[in-house]
Write a structure and sequence with these properties.
By secondary structure, this protein is of the alpha+beta class. The protein has one domain. It has helices at residues 2-14, 52-60, 143-165, and strands at residues 32-33, 40-41, 77-80, 85-89, 108-118, 121-131. Strands 3-4-6-5 form a 4-stranded mixed β-sheet, with no helix packed on it. The protein has a two-stranded antiparallel ribbon with strand order 1-2. A hairpin with a 2-residue loop joins strand 5 and strand 6. The termini are far apart.
């Protein structure tokens, strides 16, 4: 009989309930993860300027986060509108990767929605994709960077075919 009691005790220890995630800043229940630093934060500390790893990084990069056309400083931001819905806007062109302002130089704006499972609930992260004047006509291939990747892939295939059939 002592063996049975020991296995029951061991079984109970194996099935402990894991506590919910806590906010790194205030120890409240964490509702989402920051896409940049991947740490868990509550709704109040989810914005970049409200938690220490990303706020410090934004302070260091303040001089570099300017619109490449007009020089106006842009403020990448993220916010939560509910416990499971989060928005992320990095204010950079998805096609070329340079920062652009919202008012004057964002030619095309779209949104990507990503749903990430977190235990029994899911979080919806909505990313704002921007394209500048140069990348907007090429948005279907991913802007200037996407066009360059496509040309490199096609060139590689063409070179492989040429060298395969060349005597």
């Amino acid at each position: 009989m002592p063996k049975v009691n020991r296995t029951i005790r061991e079984g109970r220890q194996l099935h402990k309930v894991v506590a919910s995630r806590r906010c790194r800043e205030c120890e409240e229940e964490a509702l989402g993860r920051c896409p940049d630093c991947n740490l868990s934060f509550c709704q109040e500390h989810f914005p970049k300027q409200h938690h220490s790893p990303c706020a410090e990084r934004q302070m260091r990069l303040a001089q570099e986060q300017i619109c490449y056309v007009c020089g106006i400083q842009v403020y990448p931001d993220q916010w939560s509108i509910s416990h499971t819905s989060h928005f992320v806007d990095n204010f950079f062109c998805r096609g070329c990767g340079r920062h652009i302002c919202d008012e004057l130089h964002t030619q095309r704006k779209s949104e990507d929605v990503t749903i990430i499972r977190d235990g029994m609930r899911g979080h919806r992260y909505q990313y704002v994709n921007r394209y500048c004047d140069l990348c907007s006509p090429l948005h279907f291939v991913g802007g200037l960077k996407g066009l360059a990747r496509t040309l490199v892939a096609l060139g590689t295939v063409a070179a492989a075919v040429f060298f395969y059939f060349h005597p």
